[in-house]
Amino acid sequence: MGYDHHEGQRVSRRRVIAGISSVGLAGLLAACGRGSGTVTTSTGATAAPQATTANDLTALFDGVNTCTLTASTTQGPYYFDADKIRSDIREDREGTLLRLAIRVQDSEQCGPLPNAVVEIWHCDAAGLYSGAEAQSSGANGASGGGTAPGGGAPSGAAPGGGVPSGAAPGGGPGGAPGGSPGGGDTRGGDMGDLTPTDDQRYLRGAQVTNADGIVEFTTIWPGWYRGRTVHIHAMVHLDNARVLTSQVMFDEALNSKIYASQPYAAHTGRDTFNDNDSIYADSMLLTVREDGDGYLGVINFGVDSDQDGT
C-alpha cells in the first residue's frame, strides 16, 4: 500500500480496517510490532523481561468469563481516533509496567473473532489524557492546576458537574455522570468524539486481533482522577462498525499497592473507588498476576458481532 510498516507510525484505524483484505493480517500484525503469541514492546522503548508464554496466556484466559456479552458503557469525553497502530503505548509516561491482553469473542458462537480492531486509551499516573491535557487537568486533583478534594469540575466544564465543551450531556470525565453527585448511570450511553487540543498521543493505541481473537498491549498501570475509579477504556471495531465500547477495572488491593510508589504517590486525594463508582461492574475486573517486572492483566470481551441484539 506504499507505507512503511513500523510500529508507532501514525496509521488511521479506518485505513487499517479498510485495508485488511488487501494487506492481509500478517502484514498488519507486522505493522503492529507483534510477535507470535508473546507480549511485545515497541521499538524505541526499553524491553522488559518477558515472563509469559503463549501457553501461559491461554491458561489465564481459560480462567476468566467467556462467551458472555460484555456490557457497553459510555466512551467518555476523551475518545478520538489517535491513528496509532501499536502494541507499546507508553511513550514517555512513567509508571508500573502493565501488559494487557484482551480476547475478543463472538458472544453467540463462543468463538474467537480475528481481524477485529481493538483500541484502548487511559490516563497517565497524574490523571491526564493525551490529546486532552487541558480538559482533563481539572479532574485530577493534585496535578495540572487541579482542584481541592471534593471540588471542581474539569477545566472547561460548568460548575456543579457539567460536561466538557463539545461533549454530549450525560457523562463527566471518562464516563462519570454529569450533573449533581450521584447522578444517573451512563451504561450504554455515548458521547461525541473529541477534537484533540494538543499533539500528545501517549497511552492510546490500537491492535488487530490474531487468529485466537487476542490483542496485547504494553502500557502502565493507569492513574486516577476525581469522580472515577481506576479504569482503561476500550473499543472494538468490526469492519467499519463500533461493536463494543467498554471499560476494564482493577482490584483495589493492587491499586493501593501500586499507588503507594512513585510516580503515583505524588497524586493524592483519590475520592472514588470500585464500590462507589457509577460504572464499575465485577465483570469488568481484569484477571491480574505478577509478570516479570510488572503485571499481566487479561480479560475477555464478548461482542455481538452481527449486531442483532443478542
TrEMBL record:
Gene3D superfamilies: Aromatic compound dioxygenase (2.60.130.10). The keyword Oxidoreductase applies. Residues 133-198 are annotated as: Disordered. GO terms for molecular function: ferric iron binding; oxidoreductase activity, acting on single donors with incorporation of molecular oxygen, incorporation of two atoms of oxygen. CDD domains: intradiol_dioxygenase_like. InterPro entries: Intradiol_dOase_core (IPR015889). Residues 141-191 have a biased composition (Gly residues). This is Protocatechuate dioxygenase. It comes from Micromonospora radicis. The lineage of its organism: Bacteria, Bacillati, Actinomycetota, Actinomycetes, Micromonosporales.
